[in-house]
Amino acid sequence: MSMLLVQALNGLQFGVLLFLVAAGLSLVFGVMDLINLAHGVQYMLGAYVAATLGVWTGSFWLGALLALPVALLVGLALEWLVFRHLYRRDHLSQVLATFGVILTVDEATRALWGSAPQTVLEPSGLTGGPMGGVEIVAGLIYPTYRLVIIGVGILVPLLLWFLVERTRAGMLVRAGATHPAMVSALGVDIRRLFTIVFAFGAMLAGFAGALASPIFPVAPGMGDTVLILCFVVIVIGGVGSIRGAFIAALLVGLLDSVGRAMLPDLLRLVLDPSSARQTGAALASMLVYIVMAAILFFRPAGLFPGGRSA
Amino acid sequence: MTAPFRKTLRKHALALATLLALAAAPFLGFGDGFALSLLARAMILGMAAVSLSLLVGGAGLVSLGHAATMGIGAYAVVAFDAAGVSEGLIVFPAAIAAAAAYALVTGAVSLRTSGVHFIMITLAFGQMAFFTTSSFSSLGGDDGYTLYARTEWLGSRILDNRLSFHFLCLGLLALVWVGGTLLLGSRFGRVLRAARENPQRALAVGFQPYPYRLVAYAMAGAVGGLSGALLANATEFVSPALLSWTRSGELLFMVILGGVGQLGGAILGALAIVLLEETLSHLLVYWRLVFGPLLVLSVLFLPDGLVGAPLRLRAAFRFASPKRRNADA
């Protein structure tokens, strides 16, 4: 039972990280109708910058904090260089061009940092020492840092919800998502709005990468696996819906972690151990996609259809 | 020569020239083993890209799971090999039928969605196929399966000869291209295109797009299976990596780079990507630093892809010299 609890917490923590990346992807897709495959690049850069600056400054937290403005600046630069010219193009062109950006940035990372995973400082100053744990239920110790991620992952969506639903800027973003021409006609600089949304999404993804750096290996191409799961998240949740993305991200995170831990054991009841391990592992990797196909089959617009129908 | 024939010829000039160049390549200094195996790979991927282009450009169905059909074709070859069967008359039809059946079943579900959701659901099925092949422990699982003997035809090992393999691939590529182009021009193809442009209007004049799309999807799957079976023979190695979503993405990039307006674009795109990757990776260590920006620039400056490039160049020329524009008018 305690094993299930640990896996559920791991799933929750992976889910909130997915949400931080997917939120920007969903906003950019919903507001600008841009399919940005290169969004995972921001996640990777966030992790790399946090790792490197963490080692330089001697503090993981300082490094993670400094990763935010860097991710923001890189996002702005890429928007100015490439994405700005793609808003009016069809989805296929956007897919090819943003794939070109992935190749370039992944390769640049390899040239600058090498192919080996980076060393990351341990987050210090948490209860129970670096990477220490707290006892969540009797006899079960869970790493404090992972709990911090879950906490942050619950605070940020709340903040995002407040920004989008309760502020003037958020109102413009929502209006821009459904009626861009009208918003522009009312005197709002839609280009600048797009740039701000884009940079904000890039910063969130960079933040997720910085948070993930002590847990997952920091290596070239780390953003690509996260990216494809994020697309799963926004399609399950409903394109352009922040609430849908949050629920779908938690669902995907939980399914993935719990499935990986439980399916081989469950299959052992009907199969012999070695084939149960192999089939279970394959089935666990498939689980997310099976659920996505089923959801799209029964609810083609996702769980929470919102924003622009794509 | 009649005028419509000349018009067709001119429209497909670039693709025809490419096929002719491929036919001449072995005799123009590209006859060594390395060059021929590289060209064979490009032609085989080109075949799969043409079938994907039929879906993307013809029917407006952007599939991100097309590599699965290739993988199924390739795995059919090695599954027969593991069972001791290597007769092409059994292996190839089986590979094609298996891929077509996969496309028929997954298409029946996927085609209920559209747009981005279609992209994602085809990705989902592709991923399921990917993880399924990685659990085939008797065929090497994640590590893959080495094919020690190429497929035979009536007991003769003609596929072992590099030159005959080259021309087999070229012939099949040309067949797939001509067949696909004729199909798109037929009544069937016109319904597909009508449903792409405006599904509602197609419905209003009495065409239900779903069965037409499903047949097209299965046909593209069959061609994918054929190219997969050929690829297994060309590389003599099959692993789940063949079915990964990045492979499907690569096929899609070939189609887009070549230009979705014509099936011939996919041939150009496949050749361009395979040859460019090979050349650049030989010249530079960090070759993707050049390849990536080239992709971005091609999107920004060649909106109709490589097939549209000559027309675009000519238009730019005309714009530069107003005298000629007046003469045309």
UniProtKB/TrEMBL annotation, chain A:
* Coiled coil spans: none
Keywords from the UniProt entry: Amino-acid transport, Cell membrane, Membrane, Transmembrane, Transmembrane helix, Transport
User: Where does the protein end up?
Assistant: Cell membrane
Pfam families per UniProt? BPD_transp_2 (PF02653)
Question: Source organism's superkingdom?
Answer: Bacteria
Which parts of the chain span the membrane according to its record?
12-38, 58-83, 145-164, 193-219, 225-258, 279-298
Q: What InterPro entries does the record point to? A: ABC_transp_permease (IPR001851), BCAA_transport_permease (IPR052157)
Q: How does it sit in the membrane?
A: Multi-pass membrane protein
Family to which this protein belongs: Belongs to the binding-protein-dependent transport system permease family. LivHM subfamily.
Q: What is this protein called?
A: Branched-chain amino acid ABC transporter permease
Automatic annotation (TrEMBL), chain B:
The membrane-topology field of this record reads: Multi-pass membrane protein
Q: Which InterPro entries match?
A: ABC_transp_permease, LivM-like
Q: Which PANTHER family match?
A: ABC TRANSPORTER ATP-BINDING PROTEIN, HIGH-AFFINITY BRANCHED-CHAIN AMINO ACID TRANSPORT SYSTEM PERMEASE
Q: Which UniProt keywords apply?
A: Cell membrane, Membrane, Transmembrane, Transmembrane helix
Protein's cellular compartments: Cell membrane
Q: Does the keyword Disulfide bond apply?
A: no
Q: Where are the transmembrane segments?
A: 39-57, 64-83, 89-111, 118-139, 163-189, 210-231, 251-276, 283-302
User: What is the protein named?
Assistant: Branched-chain amino acid ABC transporter permease
Q: Is-annotated flag, keyword Transmembrane helix?
A: yes
Q: Tell me any Pfam family this protein matches.
A: BPD_transp_2
Q: What is its main location?
A: membrane
